[in-house]
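Schema walk-through. Below, the input block comes first and the output block second. Nothing else is stored per chain. Lengths vary across the set, and this one has 148 residues.
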Amino acid sequence: MKSILKNVLLTSLLTTGTLGTTWLTLPTKPAAAIVLPAQRIQFAPGSDGKYLRGYLQPDALNSYVFKAMAGQEGSISVRSLTGQMLTLSVFGVDGTRLTNSGQNWIGQLPASEDYFIRVVNDTGVPTPYTLNLTVLPLHRTHTPFVNF
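--- output ---
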């Protein structure tokens, strides 16, 4: 964990001013109150998914952020391209954890806010990976239009 914190601090210094970077402070828990740069994920018009490629050094992490509405269904998965075990965690800006481990998350987003994704490489091997994010549009009930 010390090496992850060290990498977080170094990454924070190195990525200051990078286009598309959002700064994150995790609330509520003192151990989680670490400032991280996060790459903003934006969906193309009409698209509900994003496929990203990344690379992690040993004991490092990458952080992403996306905006979603309460009630939207979503799925997030991370896969190492070399077979190493990566850890995925997903949480809201309010501190609500959707998942804290594993490589997949599927469910309904509880609030309208930014959600953060962390991909962590706890192995001793550098690894490329893919991150798949899907957030489906809200289903609205439509009143049928009847013309007489």
